[in-house]
Amino acid sequence: MSTSPTTALPKLGLKSPGAGLITLDPVRTALLHGLDGLLTGLAAQLSAPEVVGPPLLSVEGLTRLDYFRNFPHLGVSAARFAPEGLDGLAAGSPAAELPLRPTGHLLPSATCYGLLLSLEGEDVGAAGLRLSATGRCFRNETHYDGLRRLWGFHMREVLYLGTKDGAVEHLDRGSEFVQELAARLGLTLTRATADDPFYDKGGSRAKLMALDPVKHEFSAPDGTAIASVNRHRNFFGERLGIRAGEHGPAYSACVAFGVERWVHAMILAHGTAEEALDRLREARP
């Protein structure tokens, strides 16, 4: 008797190695890679080439982007063992008791930061620039909850830099893509305004956001936000000296997908990981 590809995958009783940390079993791994493959469809529609962002972000660069004024709790720092502790480490001393030194870098909490910092001082021209990337992102959270809220996760983003009108079009097409893909996958999503701007919450820009929201999220029925469309205005263009030709500081916008959260939403909608993977395969072009 033949066996479907889904049932042929091994079932493993994998345990979480810690809070906010998880090893995906073969079925959920197939879901994650398959979903990310479908999410690249937006990049294909918008002719956004694939790039790989940096694995670390400088504290100095993030400071210039008001990162710590907005998200002081999220940062996960990268550190190294102090030289005076290396002999003890090699001799088998408990690593947790040895001194660490900061490197001046953080692990990324969103994929777009590394791409934007890499474009500092560039002129993307009036035609603008689009890029697509999936990054491993990390966030300190007050609590963790399965695939809904992780310490480390994958974020797919499609980023635009260029004119104000180009940024609006980018997000309109991104929103359409999210809803169309959700329908193909059998997901019911709701769209709502989010409240985490990319700049100082107490400043004039934050007050403007209350009148003109810049971020909207698409959420599964249990409230898990699995995608967002983010309009940065010309904030990053001004801070990083990125220009759009004669239009001045570039406007930017991104469409972001939390890939593990899409896995969660698929299982929520279809009952089991195996049934979700079968639906995913049916939805492929």
TrEMBL record:
Residue ranges annotated for the Aminoacyl-transfer RNA synthetases class-II family profile domain, each copy included: 50-285
Keywords, ordered alphabetically: Ligase
SUPFAM superfamilies attached to this UniProt entry: Class II aaRS and biotin synthetases (SSF55681)
GO MF annotation terms: ligase activity
Entry annotated with the keyword Ligase: yes
Annotated InterPro entries: aa-tRNA-synth_II (IPR006195), aa-tRNA-synth_II/BPL/LPL (IPR045864)
UniProt keyword Ligase present: yes
Name assigned to this protein: Aminoacyl--tRNA ligase-related protein
Organism expressing this protein natively: Streptomyces durocortorensis
